[in-house]
Design a protein that fits this description.
Layout lengths: L2 E9 L2 E7 L4 E6 L5 H13 L26 E7 L2 E7 L4 E5 L5 H8 L3 H4 L2 H12 L5 H10 L4 H8 L7 H23 L5 H6 L12 H75 L2 E2 L6 E5 L4 E4 L8 H34 L6 H62 L4 H24 L4 E3 L5 E3 L2 E2 L5 H17 L4 E4 L7 H16 L5 E7 L11 E6 L7 E2 L2
Parallel strand pairs: 3-14, 3-15, 13-14
Antiparallel strand pairs: 1-2, 1-4, 4-5, 5-6, 7-8, 8-9, 10-11, 11-12, 15-16
Length: 561
C-alpha cells in the first residue's frame, strides 16, 4: 500500500500542507507544537474517516467542527496512493474514496495506530491474527477433533456450518446463546431457575398415589355393569309381565262384555229368522192354493202336523223376495256370530290360564339393588378418574424427567463446545502453530534494530525481552508497538505510521532507521511515515529516508537540506 501524497488544509494546527511522499520512509520532524502529530492524524482521518481527537458518532458529529483550523469555515485532508485516493472534510466528515483501498478495517487500524493491537482484548487479538495470518482450520478435521474430545455430535454439526465463514468469537457466542436458550427451555419445563448442579439431580415432584389402580377400577366397573345388566333385564321382564297381565285383565272384561253382547244379538237374530221364515212359509202356502169349504167357502189345506184340514189364513202383505233375502242375511250373521262366540270362549279359556300378577316385593328388591349398584358404579368411576389422572401424571412426570435431562445435556454440550470453538479453544491451538511465523518476524526486525526481542505468547500476551508489556518502560512499549505494527504491515499493507519517535534515545533512533532502511532495501515495506520532535532537521540518513521539517505556524511544507 504505497502512499504518494498527503494534503492538509485548515485542519487543526495546519493551515496548509502539500506533502509528496517520494521515498519509502518519510520522517516528519519539528519542534513541539509544530503540527507533526496533526499530519499523522490527518493521514488516519483521510484513510478511515474516523477522527482520533474528538468523539465520533452521529450524536457527537458536531464535534467535528473542533477539528477546523481556527477562524476557518471548513477544512479538508486527503491521501493519494498507488491506485487510490481518499479525502474527507470537516465539519462535514464525509469520506470519499476513488479506486480501492488495498486493506480496510482492523488491518488498516493496526498499522495506523501502533498501540492498537495491545489495546485489544485477548479474543480480539486472536481473531485478528487468524485473519491477518490467513490461518484456516479444516472443517472436517475440526469436527472430528471436537467429536473425539467427547462433544455432542448434533451440537457440533449445528455450529460446523459456520466454520470458515464466521469468526471464532462469533461461533463461541452462538454456542453460548444456544446454551442460554436451552437454560430458558429448562426453566419453562421446571418452573425453576437453571443451575448446573441442580440440573444434574433435578427430578419432578412425585405424583400422589391413587387408592386404587386403573385395572382394579376397570374390573369392578365391569363387574357392576354386568350385575346391573342382569337386574335391568329382570326388572324389565317383571314390568313387561305386569303390563301384559294388566292388559289381560282388561281383555277378560272386554271378552266377557263382548260375549254377553254377542249372545244377545244371536238370540235376537234367531228369533227374527224364525219369524221371517214362518211368514215366508205362510206366503208360500197361500200361493199353493187348497180346497174350498162347501159350507163357508173358506180355503182349506191339509196339515200333516195335525193330520187334518185347516183353514188357510190370508197371506201377509210382505214381499217374499225381501223376506227371503232377509233370512239369508240373518242366517249368515248367526253363523258369523256363533264363530265369534266360540272364539271369545276360547280367549276366555286362554286368559284364565295366564299366571297371577307378579310379586311387587321382588320388583322393589330389584330396584333397591339397582340403586345400590349404581352408587357403587359411580364411586368406582370416580376412583377410575383419580387413578387415570395419577397414571397419566406419572407418565407425564417420566416424560418431563427425560425432557429436562435432554435439555440439561444440551446446555452442557453447548457450554463445553463454546469453550473449545472459541478463540481460546481448538482455534487457539491452530493459532499457536501460526504464531511461530509472527514471532519470527518480530525477532527478525528486533535484531535489525538491535532492540530487545518482542514475543507474542499462545495466551496472546506480549512480552518485551521476556517481561510483560505492562511492566516495560515507555520507550520499550513504543518499540514493541513499532515491531508489532511492522509485522502487521508485513502481512497486509507494507505501510505503517509511527508518531513520537522522540521517545527513543539516539542509539535506538539509529536502530529504527537502520531497520527500516534494510526493510526498504529488501522491498519489504512500501511506505513508512515517522513523526517526532527534533531541535533541527536530522542529517546523514540513508537515501530511502526523506525528512520533512515542520515549523509553527505551518503555511506550507518545506524539505530540510
Amino acid at each position: 500500500m504505497k502512499l504518494e501524497r498527503v494534503e492538509v488544509s485548515n485542519f487543526l494546527r495546519l493551515k496548509h500542507l502539500d506533502l509528496p511522499i517520494t521515498t519509502p520512509i518519510t520522517l516528519i520532524a519539528g519542534r513541539n507544537e509544530a503540527g507533526k502529530s496533526t499530519i499523522i492524524d490527518a493521514v488516519r482521518f483521510a484513510l478511515t474517516g474516523v477522527p482520533t481527537r474528538v468523539r465520533y458518532s452521529s450524536k457527537f458529529k458536531k464535534d467535528l467542527a473542533l477539528l477546523v483550523h481556527d477562524g476557518e469555515p471548513q477544512g479538508a485532508v486527503s491521501v493519494q496512493g498507488n491506485g487510490f485516493a481518499t479525502a474527507t472534510s470537516v465539519p462535514n466528515g464525509k469520506l470519499s474514496t476513488t479506486g480501492t483501498l488495498p486493506v480496510t478495517g482492523d488491518r488498516l487500524e493496526a498499522v495506523l495506530t501502533p498501540g492498537w493491537f495491545n489495546a485489544q482484548p485477548v479474543d480480539a487479538r486472536r481473531e485478528f491474527l487468524f485473519s491477518l495470518l490467513g490461518i484456516r482450520v479444516d472443517k472436517d478435521s475440526l469436527v472430528h477433533s471436537l467429536v473425539a474430545r467427547g462433544h455432542d455430535p448434533d451440537a457440533v454439526k449445528m455450529v460446523s456450518i459456520h466454520f470458515g465463514t464466521r469468526t471464532w468469537g462469533d461461533i463461541e457466542a452462538m454456542c453460548k446463546e444456544a446454551a442460554s436458550q436451552q437454560r430458558g427451555v429448562w426453566k419453562s419445563l421446571t418452573g425453576e431457575d437453571y443451575g448446573e448442579r441442580k440440573a444434574e439431580t433435578w427430578v419432578p415432584k412425585a405424583p400422589e398415589k391413587a387408592a386404587h389402580t386403573v385395572a382394579e377400577c376397570t374390573e369392578n366397573i365391569r363387574r357392576i355393569e354386568g350385575e346391573l345388566d342382569v337386574i335391568i333385564r329382570d326388572t324389565m321382564r317383571i314390568e313387561e309381565a305386569a303390563k301384559l297381565l294388566a292388559r289381560a285383565d282388561d281383555a277378560r272384561k272386554d271378552v266377557r262384555d263382548d260375549i254377553e253382547d254377542l249372545i244377545a244379538q244371536q238370540d235376537a237374530d234367531e228369533k227374527a229368522l224364525e219369524e221371517f221364515s214362518a211368514t215366508l212359509a205362510q206366503i208360500k202356502n197361500a200361493a199353493a192354493g187348497g180346497l174350498e169349504c162347501p159350507e163357508c167357502k173358506a180355503r182349506l189345506t191339509y196339515s200333516q202336523l195335525y193330520n187334518e184340514l185347516r183353514k188357510v189364513d190370508a197371506p201377509p202383505d210382505d214381499d217374499p223376495d225381501e223376506l227371503k233375502q232377509a233370512c239369508e242375511v240373518l242366517s249368515e250373521n248367526i253363523r258369523i256370530r256363533r264363530a265369534q262366540i266360540n272364539a271369545h270362549h276360547a280367549a276366555t279359556a286362554l286368559l284364565a290360564a295366564l299366571p297371577a300378577a307378579p310379586d311387587g316385593s321382588k320388583l322393589g328388591k330389584l330396584r333397591e339393588d339397582d340403586e345400590l349398584l349404581r352408587d357403587q358404579l359411580r364411586s368406582w368411576q370416580r376412583h377410575l378418574e383419580v387413578a387415570t389422572d395419577a397414571e397419566r401424571y406419572a407418565a407425564e412426570v417420566e416424560t418431563l424427567r427425560e425432557k429436562v435431562k435432554a435439555v440439561h445435556r444440551k446446555v452442557v454440550a453447548f457450554t463445553k463446545l463454546a469453550d473449545d470453538v472459541g478463540p481460546n479453544g481448538l482455534p487457539a491451538q491452530r493459532l499457536s502453530e501460526g504464531l511461530g511465523e509472527f514471532n519470527g518476524r518480530l525477532g527478525f526486525t528486533a535484531r535489525l534494530a538491535s532492540w530487545p526481542t518482542v514475543t507474542l505468547t499462545d495466551d496472546m500476551d506480549v512480552l518485551v525481552d521476556g517481561r510483560p508489556y505492562s511492566l516495560a518502560s515507555e520507550s520499550a512499549q513504543w518499540r514493541a508497538d513499532c515491531l508489532i505494527a511492522e509485522a502487521c504491515a508485513f502481512w497486509s499493507t507494507r505501510m505503517f505510521v509511527l508518531d513520537r519517535v522522540d521517545v527513543l534515545d539516539v542509539p535506538n533512533r539509529l536502530g529504527l532507521i537502520k531497520m527500516l532502511a534494510t526493510l526498504a532495501a529488501n522491498q519489504q515495506i512500501e511506505t513508512v511515515i515517522l513523526a517526532g520532535t527534533f531541535k533541527q532537521p536530522p542529517t546523514g540518513l540513508p537515501s530511502s529516508v526523506r525528512v520533512q521539517w515542520i515549523e509553527a505556524p505551518v503555511t506550507e511544507g518545506r524539505v530540510a537540506a
